[in-house]
Amino acid sequence: MNQLTVNPLTQADFADFGDVVESEGRDSFFINNGMAERFHALARVETKGDGSYPIISLVKSKQFELPRKVDHVEHHPLGSQAFLPLDQTPFIVVVAKTGAAPSPDDLQAFITNGKQGINYHVGTWHHVLLTPYAAMDFICVDWEGEGNNCIDHFYELSQHRELLIP
Q1: For residue 146, what pLDDT is reported?
Q2: DSSP type of residue 140
Q3: 142-156 burial, b if ≥16 CB within 10 A, otherwise e?
Q4: Which of 3, 83, 113, 131 could cysteine-pair with 61, CB 3.0–4.6 Å?
Q5: Are strands 136-144 and 161-164 parallel, antiparallel or unpaired?
Q6: pTM above 0.85, yes or no
C-alpha cells in the first residue's frame, strides 16, 4: 500500500494550492470603535465565467475513520472553494497542483491546527475534507453559476494511498 504522510499546515507549504485562513502571523486593524480586531482579506474568492458569483454555505462533515485511503480527488475549474471550521478541531486536507489529473505521487497532505481554514485556488485538485477526530461544521465559500464546477478523478485500486499521520 502506498502511503501519504500528513504534514502540519503552514501558509508557505500550502501556497501552491490555496490560502490558509488564519489570524496567526497576519496583519490586523481595529474596527467597531476598537471593540473588534479585523484580519482583512485572508483569502480571495475567485470566480471565472459570466453570471457566476460567490456563495456561502454550511457543511456538516461526519467523522471519518482511520486508517483512510485516498481513492479519488476533485477540482473546481470555475471558482475557488474555502472551508472555515466552526469547531476548533484539526482536519486533514489532501491536495495536488492545478493541471492534468494528478498521479498519486503528486498528492500532498496537511493537518490543520484546529483554528485554520483553507481556500483552494481555482483548479487545485483535492480530496474531500477529512475529519477523523470528530464530526465538524464548516462555513463553505465557493462558486455558483453555469457550467460544471466539480470534476472528479478516481484512482485504480492499486494506486490508492493510505494516510500516514505522525
Answers
A1: 85
A2: E
A3: bbebeeebeeeeebe
A4: 131
A5: unpaired
A6: yes
Catalogue the E-assigned strands of the chain. 2-8, 18-21, 29-31, 36-38, 53-61, 69-70, 72-75, 81-85, 92-96, 108-111, 117-120, 125-126, 136-144, 151-154, 161-164
Condensed to tens digits (0 to 9), the pLDDT of residues 59-79 reads 999 998 888 899 999 999 999
pLDDT of 41 reads: 86
Q: How far apart are CA 38 and CA 97, in angstroms?
A: 30
Q: Which three cell numbers stand for residue 125?
A: 485538485
Task: Cell numbers for 93, please give them.
Answer: 486536507
Place of cell 477526530: 133
Contact by Cβ (8 Å): 160, 4: no
Q: Which three cell numbers stand for residue 92?
A: 486533514
Domain covering 2-164 assigned CATH 2.40.440.10 in the classification? no
Average pLDDT (111-128) is 96
CB-CB contact of 137 with 60 (8 Å) = yes
Contact yes or no for 14/112 (Cβ under 8 A): no
